[in-house]
Specification:
148 residues, alpha+beta, STM4215-like, five-stranded antiparallel sheet, 7 strands, elongated
């Protein structure tokens, strides 16, 4: 699983994927407060104003390459990506894209590929009808090595 160089690659890929994601601004009806439908055919994606990523934890398991020894290796690594917008956004399309086609990093030839799986999302939105404070969305990923 990731050494320092691979850790940097995972970090950079999570930042890149999030910055390029399909996020759309959400509008509310002034009278009813109901959320308006987003017409993605004409809407322009809104990039996050800031994106931060950091690893949270690692799970350690038996090393699959060393049958006769007691060596251990990382079997999974949990990452948190925080993205902030100046308006309220929906991340539905971004999440759907990650669930259907999770990013996969090809590491050095002697190492396994690492798949970045979206595991959980936590939302912090402004009060309905007050879009000026924007959205803060936390995306939790697990980096998992694929079997050879």
């Amino acid at each position: 699983m990731p050494n320092t160089i691979n850790k940097i690659r995972i970090h950079n890929e999570l930042i890149s994927v999030t910055k390029a994601g399909a996020f759309y601004a959400v509008d509310f009806d002034n009278c009813s407060g109901a959320m308006q439908d987003v017409d993605e055919a004409v809407a322009t994606p809104v990039p996050p104003s800031s994106v931060y990523a950091n690893e949270l934890s690692a799970q350690i398991g038996d090393a699959t390459n060393y049958r006769m020894s007691y060596q251990r290796q990382r079997s999974e690594w949990t990452w948190l990506v925080k993205a902030k917008w100046s308006c309220q956004v929906t991340s539905y399309r971004f999440e759907e894209a990650l669930m259907l086609n999770p990013p996969c990093l090809v590491m050095d030839p002697d190492q396994r590929q690492v798949q970045l799986m979206l595991e959980r999302v936590q939302y912090q939105h402004s009060t309905t009808g007050q879009p000026h404070s924007g959205s803060l969305i936390e995306f939790y990923f697990n980096a998992r090595p694929l079997r050879r």
